[in-house]
Amino acid sequence: MSTKKEIRIGLIGTGLMGRTHSNGYNRMRNFFPELEYTPVLKAVCSRNEEKVRKFADQWGYESIETDWRAVIARDDIDAVDICTPNNTHAEIALAAAAAGKMILCEKPLARTLEEAQTMTDAVEKAGVKNTVWYNYRRVPAVTLAKQIIDSGKLGRIFHYRANFLQDWTISPDVPQGGDATWRLDVDAAGSGVTGDLLAHCIDTAMWLNGGIKDVSAVTETFIKERVHQGTGEVQKVGIDDACLFHCHFDNGSLGLFESTRYARGHKALYTLEINGEHASIRWDLHDMNRLEYFDHSDESIVRGWRSILITDADQPYMKRWWIPGTIIGYEHSFVHQVADFFESLGTGEPCNPTFYDALQTQKVCEAVIDSANTRSWKDTDVQWKG
Amino acid sequence: MSTKKEIRIGLIGTGLMGRTHSNGYNRMRNFFPELEYTPVLKAVCSRNEEKVRKFADQWGYESIETDWRAVIARDDIDAVDICTPNNTHAEIALAAAAAGKMILCEKPLARTLEEAQTMTDAVEKAGVKNTVWYNYRRVPAVTLAKQIIDSGKLGRIFHYRANFLQDWTISPDVPQGGDATWRLDVDAAGSGVTGDLLAHCIDTAMWLNGGIKDVSAVTETFIKERVHQGTGEVQKVGIDDACLFHCHFDNGSLGLFESTRYARGHKALYTLEINGEHASIRWDLHDMNRLEYFDHSDESIVRGWRSILITDADQPYMKRWWIPGTIIGYEHSFVHQVADFFESLGTGEPCNPTFYDALQTQKVCEAVIDSANTRSWKDTDVQWKG
Amino acid sequence: MSTKKEIRIGLIGTGLMGRTHSNGYNRMRNFFPELEYTPVLKAVCSRNEEKVRKFADQWGYESIETDWRAVIARDDIDAVDICTPNNTHAEIALAAAAAGKMILCEKPLARTLEEAQTMTDAVEKAGVKNTVWYNYRRVPAVTLAKQIIDSGKLGRIFHYRANFLQDWTISPDVPQGGDATWRLDVDAAGSGVTGDLLAHCIDTAMWLNGGIKDVSAVTETFIKERVHQGTGEVQKVGIDDACLFHCHFDNGSLGLFESTRYARGHKALYTLEINGEHASIRWDLHDMNRLEYFDHSDESIVRGWRSILITDADQPYMKRWWIPGTIIGYEHSFVHQVADFFESLGTGEPCNPTFYDALQTQKVCEAVIDSANTRSWKDTDVQWKG
Amino acid sequence: MSTKKEIRIGLIGTGLMGRTHSNGYNRMRNFFPELEYTPVLKAVCSRNEEKVRKFADQWGYESIETDWRAVIARDDIDAVDICTPNNTHAEIALAAAAAGKMILCEKPLARTLEEAQTMTDAVEKAGVKNTVWYNYRRVPAVTLAKQIIDSGKLGRIFHYRANFLQDWTISPDVPQGGDATWRLDVDAAGSGVTGDLLAHCIDTAMWLNGGIKDVSAVTETFIKERVHQGTGEVQKVGIDDACLFHCHFDNGSLGLFESTRYARGHKALYTLEINGEHASIRWDLHDMNRLEYFDHSDESIVRGWRSILITDADQPYMKRWWIPGTIIGYEHSFVHQVADFFESLGTGEPCNPTFYDALQTQKVCEAVIDSANTRSWKDTDVQWKG
């Protein structure tokens, strides 16, 4: 173990994503023991000292900070992991890039396209390693979908559809702002479901099916006013509660996307489907270890959608885990992303999605919001490199 | 039986819908024996004499005609059932109304809004009984969905989504025009999936969730040229192969619709879902005897989507059929529509959807096509009466 | 039509099976128009004159009888269809055979093996056409399962399992005896779930997987006493409420069977599964148009259970019905059996299952009951001809 | 952290279970930070020094041993975790008990009832803490099932059924004996699927539904001879490849169990179902985060099986993990068992299942094998304490 190259992590933010990333770092040694690089949990940062101390103890960080600038200033930090609300991503990333740190940034990259562009320029200029946590690419079933598509089994693609449905903000009593509900505060989040949920769908979609060319969208804010945690006042809600759009992909296929936090009965139902000339694929986060696959070349009388349980060693990432028939969970997508990041340090390849890739997703998000606001089609200007 | 009032049917068209309607008439006596009115299969009409004679023998029609005008001219015909391609609906319906016949017309009502308006005006002016075969309303699970929604169980509605996915025209070798493939010929069909498939989704949607106010759509024709059965020439394809749109309902909810014949793996996957404040409902034609229902008022630790098998006597139409656990099929939706039509003769109520109702669906279809052609939102001018 | 050979049917019994069979006869002309032989609904018989008159009117029978002996005595009856409770099957069948009538008998063939043997001897001696209504063989998905198995795709068979779960007798207030609940009266039914439900499972199992050699069973009667409809008295319940058994098939595979009317939540859940060396098949009556199929020869990374929607023209019976994606129901299994019976009149082949085949099923049922009563393994003495 | 009481673990065995247990210990600090007791990974033992050294490095063990006796002899070991093949459980456990160590033993407790009895006597006499890794009790959906049953929602129980189906030994080329396939060697394993798979089903069944009174079983060995890894010779296979049994529970309900490694298409399909008077429950390991629940008290027209996605904080163990809609995996059941074990150190309660509980399961297993061998019913003599 002494021969491993250590990368000293400074984690900023101790919410849900702070936990999933920390778990990722902690699992590497156990499940990817052969990797040349290894994380060291050097520091974790959050404004609340008591909370961050408890977090550090729970997850094994060596030290704490209460000001993110202190993390970046430290010489003993190689990589900064940004898990804070969206409105802080840009400032932290710019500072980290300037300090020559590697950056692992939570999604969406930023609140706006402008912020995202600045951040991308900064990391590219600084030449620092960078990646964005669009974790669903590393769900084995989704990774397998990518392999199947790349193999050409689907032929010409006609349709791509995805949605991300939740139901946790239906009650008007849910507040906006604050630690638990900053995602409902437009100043902190930048947008509502578009940046929070559709950004995931868009990242996966372009990874699987190439660039999105233009979009036509509609958004809705069902609950117009909510109490703000910060002010205690009832304030106008600035985010999109729901967002629907259709689009053209560069390859000529049609896309259809929907996201909402008002779909009663769905907790986190991220589903995707892609229809090709010869075959189709479906996936659904609630049953994330299954991939459904239809192959028209099967003999006609026994042709049907296959429900593939992704648990075998020849399927992506699964040789790391248990035995056929035994599934993994949500957190494993983050473990895989950590492992791929550390593996990429060895190979020198970028760890996708990079800031550049996430910038393309941001372009789509911005075009979607613009389209909804102007009730018109918008070009995205995406330059997808894949 | 001698006391029943006979309605003498003249069926025009002997394709798939000619068969489903004929089966409907033939089943009434067996499964709805108490109805006061009863159909008599007086005449069936098709241009091919040999074919229509065989059809008459198979389905029990007393006589045949080879010119639809002859059917309308006959005094011994009370009701005209129009099962011909879309481009003939208007002419036949106008003549039938002028002759004072009841009219049962296949969907979509017409190729264009203009035709549909003329037809609706004609039946209203003539005061003849009229109905349109949007059969999916009479699938017991869908009828139950209507009852649940009307009971108020869902509360405020946020979302409605539906799609109708097929895959039978993916091969470029499928021709357009002719008996089997007139649905691919824009002159015969008026439109592609919009009139053929989305019209079903729209009719059900407005029945369940009220009028659609405005739409934003995109269409695509994936295969640009096909051989025409009539001319034998390769000709431009004029229909929409796929159509996607989002919309606002009058009640403030958002709608999302998609239809295509290029979704590999789906034969006739008509699905719908409606999300309310308190409860949600899903349905899918491939498993048409099931309704999925989520009720947020269930105790939280045991709350989940219920898969309701609609086979019991207290569920719509099911006391007519067999025993709990034993399902019915596609054809039964037509049997139910026939029975409801004949029952409405006794009550004097309209048999929904009427031409008026189908005209509203036509307005949405026309707005959808216009929206796609102009890449802009379109108001529908729907006046939904429910 | 005038050229068809008419078979004059005398139906005895007007319960659920009287309805399914009558529907079968009525559908033949519509869906199997080419068959040389055709049924004529000559007479229907039930002890209650008012009821049978109504039934005759509803289903189109030409005449009524209130004594089954009268049906058999009539010269204008070619075939006797026995739909009465089990305790009358033997007497009617023996009389019908003696009168040289064709016999279509509801399942189970008889209450006891002895009765069944006598009946089989009688029809074989008389040389009359005979068949037993084990209708599930004619569900297209089950028929397709047979074709797949016969094709050798499964290889050596290891396991066969089936169950038939209901929940309609859980309440102690359900009576025994009488028109609706004779199945709970051991004198009328012979046995409980063994003859009513497991007999179906056994017939299908032997058709698909060959003879059952020996059995080890357990039965239970959960509700010990119920009011008898006939006497109005609370009486001991003589039937088996539940029956479970395992067995060896002649081919060396293991069988597992279960049936009950106390499985809360299941209306008529008949499921079967067969596991072979190379492939497996599953089916479930609640979703009867689907067949699940697993083929180990599929490429490993995309291998999974296929959900085959049996609606296409190249799948058994389905060219008779509608279009891909549109399903059929429970009643169609009886239509198919009627059609196969009439087709077999033309070919001169037996219409399976014959009395002989049903006798083999009876042997298994008797061995099962014996095994349960004696708490020991029993040989069945089945001679399966397939 | 310094205030926690440390329990020094000595792990014996580095196979699959060695990994799942080690993962469990490593996750405790992250997900159960409040527990008073904490594991310290003091030593791991395996005969192959290179392999055990690598394992120790991967999982964070402080030291290694190559002889299990050395582990037990060490003063700095508080608890021995036995993850070796079944034929070594008894000897190690007896030694550990004699040395006053806590014991966590993999299932099945032993190869035979006699061994299991001796082991149970030993730990009870020594008064050492003991538990057996029947991990499926700690799958949140299964734990929830227990809560629902204990709440009385099901009422009187009629049926319990479970199976555990695999397909990994179908090929005759799979050897017996050795590290990877000792489960096929009767000397190492004691039995085949009965001890390996049915033991899980039996433990869960008795936990949920009480003691099993008597059993009637059948077993089969489909492949009669396999190469032995140890000798390199083709030898007779002594294990049961498949085992089926029915039984009576103490509460009067009927049980049905099946296990096999020859069910093509099933990797590790452990399913269970329990039917009560008022409600029923189903679960399936392949979709382990879902529980299906049918409640007859639901309004009849909207009554159906509920698919409950177990991901919310008010469901067992789930407040430890992520957010609603995001699932966990197989390994988490072991994490939960570790946590419950350490929590029980604080409370002084036993950590179920104890050796005593596992002994009862062993009684059923032994009766099952005896029953199959003698083709007769066997009493189990289970004294279930629950």
TrEMBL record, chains A, B, C, D:
Which part of the chain is the Gfo/Idh/MocA-like oxidoreductase N-terminal domain?
7-132
Domain GFO/IDH/MocA-like oxidoreductase span(s) in chain numbering: 144-282
Q: Is Plastid among the key words of this record?
A: no
Name the InterPro entries for this protein. Answer: Gfo/Idh/MocA-like_OxRdtase_N (IPR000683), Gfo/Idh/MocA_oxidrdct_glycsds (IPR050463), GFO_IDH_MocA-like_dom (IPR055170), NAD(P)-bd_dom_sf (IPR036291)
MF annotations from Gene Ontology: nucleotide binding; oxidoreductase activity
| Oxidoreductase in keyword set | yes
Entry keyword set: Oxidoreductase
Protein name in the entry: Putative dehydrogenase
Q: Which species does this protein come from?
A: Dyadobacter jejuensis
